[in-house]
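Re: the multi-chain job from yesterday

Posting the exact lines I submitted so nobody has to dig through the queue logs.
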Amino acid sequence: MKNLLDGIEEVLLMGPGPSCVPDEVYKALAKPTLGHMDYYFIEIMDETKSMLQDLMQTKNPLTLAISATGSAGMEAAFVNLVEPGDPVLICINGVFGTRMADIATRLGADVDTIEFKWGTPVIPGNVKEKLSKKKYSVVAVVHAETSTGVKNPVREIGDIVKEHGALYIVDAVTSLGGIPVEVDNWKIDVLYSGTQKCLSCPPGLSPITFSGKAIKKIQNRKNKVPNWYLDMNMIMQYWGGKKRVYHHTAPINMLYGLYQSLFLFFQEGRDTVYKRHQETHEMLVEGLEKLGLKMLVEPSHRLPMLNSVIVPEKIDEAEVRSTLRKKYKIEIGAGLGPLAGKIWRIGLMGHTARKNNVKRLLDALSEIIK
Amino acid sequence: MKNLLDGIEEVLLMGPGPSCVPDEVYKALAKPTLGHMDYYFIEIMDETKSMLQDLMQTKNPLTLAISATGSAGMEAAFVNLVEPGDPVLICINGVFGTRMADIATRLGADVDTIEFKWGTPVIPGNVKEKLSKKKYSVVAVVHAETSTGVKNPVREIGDIVKEHGALYIVDAVTSLGGIPVEVDNWKIDVLYSGTQKCLSCPPGLSPITFSGKAIKKIQNRKNKVPNWYLDMNMIMQYWGGKKRVYHHTAPINMLYGLYQSLFLFFQEGRDTVYKRHQETHEMLVEGLEKLGLKMLVEPSHRLPMLNSVIVPEKIDEAEVRSTLRKKYKIEIGAGLGPLAGKIWRIGLMGHTARKNNVKRLLDALSEIIK
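And the result, structure tokens for all chains:
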């Protein structure tokens, strides 16, 4: 019997996530499994929580990792905070804003959207105007739009939402660990992320945090959360409190991986990590422009960890990706939705954001598209 | 900075899951991460699906692993098959039947339950009688009640449900990989499991299968599935079809682990694995009885992989568990719900089900409670 795992090659992951995983994280994943109620495992959970609070710049006690991937973090944010009929405003300038609107609609919320051209950022003034016309209970925005490479002005929108009095949900799946995220300063009520982007841990968990105001909403819901698996009323008793109450079996080894990722982040130092992302991004853009390629997003709104490159006319974008993968063992991403076929998405996330990786990609690209 | 992962000890996991993980599975978890749309990763997914079909004894094309733990499999089964107002019958004889009723109720179903004493099995005749009085769209039962150690007569109930015309949901979280599970022969429409029980992979995924009849129901729903993350209409396009459509980023390395677990299962051979579970169970029961301990469940309804032992009077059950964990590095489980403080739950799941492990536990117990 042939074992396919024996044929897995090391691929340089420069797509929109997953990113490259450091050896220390692989080793962490392979540590002996402990029970989900084991006293030593609970110490690891507590320390993970504390590192997540530090990373997210929040004092929120309800800070933890959801036992599923980043999209489940989005689901958890909405399913806990939104009840049928609740007026919700979603800012949309890419796939992930669109997904938020889909989730909120499925939950029976009264969903309004405010849309911006893909590749451009959300404009706070427009959000303010929208809020002046209707009372919303929740406003949501994506910090780093992975589908376009745009950074949205989360801090500025936070001030507006706070004044309005709504709960503020922010998607930080791609931003967390690569650029500053300041939950408390930015007045965010729920922020969630994923492990497979700038944290450089394989996919499988969604770090998330809830403010006191968000918890109050959850505890005073008219109806039970219509999702047992993601009901924070129960999950908070497993992740906190004096006596831990069993809810579901946590993904133990994935949590080891997240712990190690966070450990490496703080070992390297927050500022150094952010600087590394910025510098490799600048090196990549410079190199791409030398090859005659153009970026989709204006410089002032670009994310360092997700670079959208316009595919030149007459180039078969899928063939370039396929050659990169098969000949050079490098993965880059395709465009999504209206940008499918029009852009490549080059990730510089976490462990991937290294100058030698940028050089390897630029060398390969210059051979392919010369 | 101290790294807590350095202090993780190897614990013999003889609780209700997670179970002991073979070295080959740890190694699989630490294989290089590939992209979730990578052609080679899709080969691994396809082979995983094929092994799951073989393990579950089904031809269902929609057979895959949900990107979250076993409880999310339960959530996925109900949230896809049930719409508000649908009449649903849940058989309850433990915690996990109760959880099913909770989930179905949150989804707005018209939930009836048929209850049996914890520690005793569901009686098919009673289910038949219940079905003769009301038309149900879904009937659900737990195969292996992890909270009590009882095996329910899934095959017999399947015949009755089929005659009635309802969809049949079966929880095989603890049974799959330890005793026979025959999805097609037993007329099951949705069956889900977990990786951390008899498959001996760490927790994090939920293998699941849907019959053609179940898919028809999902495709003809009046409303969208009120759970984006678990909506099978979208997930089936990622796990099948000619062109894979991105839904969410799958937990790549966890899927390597599941692949390896299934590989080991078929390498050892189905019959040998089931025999090993049965023989270690018999050895355990014999040893426990020699120590003067009594089993909760009658012999004919006992699960080999989950053994409920009545805690003798005058024994502090929590102290015994704590001594086992701290002095002997063995984990066993406590009772849940009405059985809390009254039973221990000893797991013999997958890799844990070995005679040397049984001996180690019996020796430790005899020292502690002598």
